[in-house]
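User: Structure please.
Assistant: Input sequence and predicted structure:
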Amino acid sequence: MMDRRQFLAAAAAAPAAARATIGLVGEMDSTPSATGKKLYVWDHSDPKSTAAASKKKYRGLKAKGLAGVFLGGGPVDQEYEAVREAGLELHVWMWTTNRGDDWVRKNHPEWYQVSRSGKSCFDKPPYVDYYRWISPHIPGAVQYICDRAEEIARHAAVQGVHLDYVRYPDVILPDALWKDYKLDQTDELADYDFDYGDAAVAAFKKATGRDPRAIKDPATDQEWLHFRYDAITALVKKVHATVKPHKKVLTAAVFPTPSLARKICRQDWDKWPLDFATPMVYHSFYNKDEHWIGDAVRENVHAARFPIVAGLYMPAFASPEAFETGIKAALHRGAVGVSLFGGIGDAYWEVATKLLRS
């Protein structure tokens, strides 16, 4: 099954490879500081890897200047131990509201979000088959997500829980992807506008006395927009309350800026109780150049109450020089580090090591 980064990478016809992360509790400082410059990668656990191979891999990454990994696809105990033994921070990332779990689909089809056009993610997911989003307005669905977060937080080798897909489905894709899906999303389309299921409708009626299905222009209705922003924020707060008793860091991979995130996927992430965020400032997805990375980071730093680690998309950099421009733009505008996704060649590693160890 693809994850969100693979979906975007595939849509842009680019290779999907590595991942990134942050933070150790106790043994090392788990939250990037205003003076630190940290390097992370998003990666995927490999259940077929031997203990020896895992140790070699993560020792090698440590030697390149890596601070930590955001690791998905676990748990793989021997790999978790290899990360810790190498002296790297281990943050395990989880799918949050996008849940295609067999158990959920078999037992709770009613948990799935419904579009404004009446299509359920249970059997008619938007864009791609694995887009199976459950509603943050259903208590059982929220508890299920919190339980999954607690499973990660309980693991002794894990320093943090990293939230992915913690939002609604993309009501508007990044500009550069429209052509891949043969869509014009200048306006919000009913097939991609969620959540109009019974639970969300009932909750909105109770809160406001209004039926969201009767709203003429949902794209501009502030009450309906904020109702959904607040639902995801409330979910993150509950996950936070679940993770913190285990003394683990809570982070999230989020859309590039708060303003874009609210517009694209109802994600009001600068209001969340995070230890830090890794906004995916994937400039090529928005038809921007490397300097835009700095503009995005500046907005993030001004909006958020926690440190920002800029998530960079490696296939978008045409040369090591362009990559250097992107990193410098992020750090100059206040990022405390960068998190890399995608294949990283030796020349690119040299740039990252030079800039983040300096």
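The domain at 4-96+138-181+247-357 is CATH 3.20.20.80 (TIM Barrel).
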